[in-house]
Structures are given as C-alpha cells and as structure tokens.
C-alpha cells in the first residue's frame, strides 16, 4: 500500500530554502517572502488611498509601514512562544531571540499588528476601524507569499493522503501528504484577496467602518479552520483534548470577532444617509 501511495505522489521541487549566504548571514525564501509581502501590501494600500473617502493620507501608510514590520516580527515570535512551544522556550529563554531558526505564529503576528494599529491611530487621531479596513485589504498578499515559502521550505505540510496531487516532503517521512501550504496560499491568499478587492471596488462597504477588516478576520479564520483538517498538527502538541488543533482553537475567536466587526460596520455604515 505504501508503494502505491508513493507512486501516486508528485515529486517535491528541489528548491534550496536558503537563497544565498555571506558568512554568517543567510537569506532564506521565508524571510524574503516577509519582506516582499510587506512591501507589496504597503504599495497596494497606497493605491487604495487614491480612491474617494480614504480615512488617511498616504503619509500615514508610509509611516505605518515600519510599525507593521515591528508588529509582525515581535508579535509573530511572541505568539509562537506562548501558543506553540512555551515550555521549551522557558527552559531556554535565550532561544527566543534566535528568530533565524524559525518559529513564527500568524495569530501572534496579527495581534502584534493590531496593537501597532491601535497605538498608531491613537497617536495620529485616525479612525481605527477604517484604518484597519484598508490595511486588511493588503494582508492576503503577504499570506500568499508566506505560504508558498512554507511549501518551498517543506514545512507545515499536511496529513498523509492518497490524493493524486500529494507530495512526499523531505522531512515528512516516506508517505505522500496534502500540500496544505498551497491550500492556505489559495484560500488565505488569492481567494481572500479577491473577495476583499471585489468588496472594496464594487460595493460601498469601504465606508462601513470595520466591515472589510471583519471580512478578512472571519475569512482567514474560516480558511485556517478548514485547512487544519488536513494539515499535520504540531508534533509537540498534536490534537488537543477538545478534538481541535491549536490552529483551529485560535481561529474560532477570529471568526466570531470578524463576524461582529462585519455587523458593527453594517450598523454604523457612513453611506446610509446618502442611500
């Protein structure tokens, strides 16, 4: 049976996770995806600000770029330590600083960026929800690139399967597995970007404070919850006593909060008088 499964799988692309190295410095696809994703998302938000009824000036998006970088890195690292490997890092606290060894949590990065937005909007006197609406439209770009980088690294792969598009990952044993990274790139990246693009450009919801960021938050949570059904759970956590994975457990509050934001945005829509 194992031979049949392996024969049905696709060959994993032999791409070195490390692009190049100079002495102790090494540039990896994962780090490059973070950099390019943040830059493309920033440029996309600048384009959105050219449309009528923008909640901020382009200079605000320029200034927030640095805040977002700090929020993603610090939040992602702290989130991974707290949610996924707390005991191990407490036994060796200095390992928390070794970010080049990997270990980032999307949910933690989201919390980090959210905190950055709260502080930034308070400092500049901007509407938090409308500011977040515009920022959320660019986030799927980074998610798409990040998940593709996960695939190149051969990490965060799926569970064993016999689907014809399965891959045998270098660190996943001899069995073919779901390319769950590509599922997430499709759902959290391309599809979610398309939904937000259509809502922003084809409907009046960009004037509904919180609706777009709520759509993003709920959409990501739903996508992640679904993909976790075929994604291999973290080895040191496995499936929790609730029957859910850690990713699913963290996604449920995102879905509920996202739906509340959508309700809030609809209730407080700024175009209702004009309608």
Describe this structure in words.
By secondary structure, the chain is mostly helical. It is 60% helix and 3% strand. The chain contains 9 helices and 2 strands. The protein has a two-stranded antiparallel ribbon with strand order 1-2. A hairpin with a 2-residue loop joins strand 1 and strand 2. Helix 2 packs antiparallel against helix 3 and helix 2 (29-48) packs antiparallel against helix 6 (128-153). Mean pLDDT is 86; it is low at 1-5.
Which structural class matches the secondary elements?
mainly alpha
Shape: globular
**Major β-sheet annotation:** 2 strands, antiparallel
- How many structurally independent domains? 1
Assembly status: single chain
Number of helices: 9
User: What strand order characterises the main sheet?
Assistant: 1-2
Regions with little confidence, pLDDT below 50 for 5+ residues: 1-5
Q: How much helicity do the residues have?
A: 55-70%
Topology, please?
Blueprint: H1 2-8, E1 18-22, E2 25-28, H2 29-48, H3 58-83, H4 86-91, H5 106-124, H6 128-153, H7 180-202, H8 211-227, H9 246-267
Antiparallel strand pairs: 1-2
Helix pairs in contact: 2-3, 2-6, 3-5, 6-7, 6-8, 7-8, 8-9
Characteristic key phrases:
60% helix, 3% strand, single chain, 275 residues, disordered N terminus, 9 helices, mainly alpha
Q: What would a concise description of this structure say?
A:
The chain has 275 residues and is mainly α.
